[in-house]
Amino acid sequence: MDPLLVFPNPPPPELAQCLDLDGWSWKAVGDAEAAMAEEPEEGWSGAVVVADSDPEGAFALCRRLRKVEVPNPTPAGTGGWKPIGRPGTQRRPVR
């Protein structure tokens, strides 16, 4: 499994402990440039961003990740709609 991206570096001890106890592979970074430089070939499997100590750095990282994000294809048989929330609740058009 590809690792999770975690911000900041070092992460809060409670977060690191939870990820380790649940068996997640993760890599902590200190800024957006480090996240791009250390990105695995297959990409990050997700990101956990803690914004309490460095909100500007956290939002800069999120903006940078959003710029390079690859959109997921529309699931077959949905007519261009993807479910949001719990399955069967709300639906919205895919852009």
The low-pLDDT segments are none
Q: How many DSSP-defined strands?
A: 5
Distance between the termini: 28 Å
In which range does the helix fraction lie?
A: 25-40%
How big a fraction of the residues is strand?
15-25%
Describe the global form: globular
Mean pLDDT: 83
Structural description of this entry:
- The structure is a single chain.
- With 95 residues, the chain is α/β, with parallel strands linked by helices.
- It contains three helices and five strands, in the order βαβαβαββ.
- It has helices spanning 13-21, 32-37, 55-68, and strands at 4-7, 26-28, 46-49, 81-84, 90-93.
- The strands form two sheets. A three-stranded parallel beta sheet has the order 2-1-3, with helices on one face. Strands 4-5 form a two-stranded antiparallel ribbon.
- The longest helix has 14 residues, at 55-68.
